[in-house]
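Quick one:
INPUT:
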């Protein structure tokens, strides 16, 4: 595939970063409409997304620097390549850092957590779709190898040949892999449409966020079946990995939020 979108002299524009940036812009644009629908000031939705993105990037990059501090001290020029490195642990740390940053903003401005979550559900899902397109191009979060016994599946396999994909993401080269990033992108796009449509249905606060938790958890669990589990934490004798357990937790949380709604209780968090 194409880890580098284009290059002008020494300037390299990575496909992953470009797609992630497009995803942020799409999410920010959509959040202006969803915020108004839940009666949240659009500036708060904008600020939450921007803060979440910067907190996520800062957390993941700082973790990478700390883990490799000894090597970076010996080779300071390697700092220039820090932004290009992708790893499941970095992604998880970034998501956690972004979530903490947004929660602090909600508490500081005394916003309704449920309304803020509802306004961000569809935009975040849309951003996820764009990010996974970037991952497909870059080779990040790559899929499992398609064995010879699954010959029919090789028709839609993806084969990476760029050394940059191997260097930045550890992607295996020259072997057919499941295009799991494409599966995730399509699923996230569908989830964005469902969450956006749910805003116009009769609802209580928080149920759009509940739908997002439920859908994102299911999507995470299913797509992990086709991802390579290296570095993702295999548990229970290789039966599941850590992201799948996180997905199950998200499904449980989403179900609890929707159960609260269906039982007729008000959710005014």
């Amino acid at each position: 595939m194409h880890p580098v979108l284009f290059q002008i002299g020494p300037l390299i524009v990575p496909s992953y970063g470009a797609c992630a940036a497009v995803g942020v812009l799409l999410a920010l644009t959509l959040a202006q409409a969803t915020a108004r629908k839940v009666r949240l000031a659009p500036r708060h939705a904008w600020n939450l997304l921007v803060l979440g993105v910067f907190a996520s990037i800062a957390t993941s990059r700082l973790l990478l620097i700390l883990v490799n501090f000894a090597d970076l001290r010996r080779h300071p020029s390697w700092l220039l390549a820090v932004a290009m490195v992708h790893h499941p642990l970095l992604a998880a740390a970034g998501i956690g850092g972004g979530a903490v940053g947004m929660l602090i903003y909600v508490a500081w401005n005394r916003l309704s957590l449920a309304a803020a979550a509802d306004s961000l559900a569809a935009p975040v899902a849309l951003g996820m779709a764009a990010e996974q397109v970037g991952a497909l191009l870059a080779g990040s979060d790559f899929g499992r190898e398609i064995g010879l016994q699954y010959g029919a599946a090789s028709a839609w396999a993806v084969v990476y040949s760029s050394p940059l994909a191997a260097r930045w993401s550890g992607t295996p080269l020259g072997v057919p892999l499941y295009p799991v990033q494409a599966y995730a992108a399509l699923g996230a796009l569908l989830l964005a449409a469902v969450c956006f449509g749910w805003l116009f249905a009769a609802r209580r606060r928080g149920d759009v966020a509940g739908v997002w938790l439920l859908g994102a958890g299911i999507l995470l669990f299913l797509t992990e079946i086709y991802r390579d589990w290296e570095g993702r934490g295999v548990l229970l004798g290789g039966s599941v990995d850590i992201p799948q357990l996180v997905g199950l937790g998200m499904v449980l949380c989403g179900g609890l939020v929707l159960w609260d709604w269906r039982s007729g209780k008000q959710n005014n968090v």
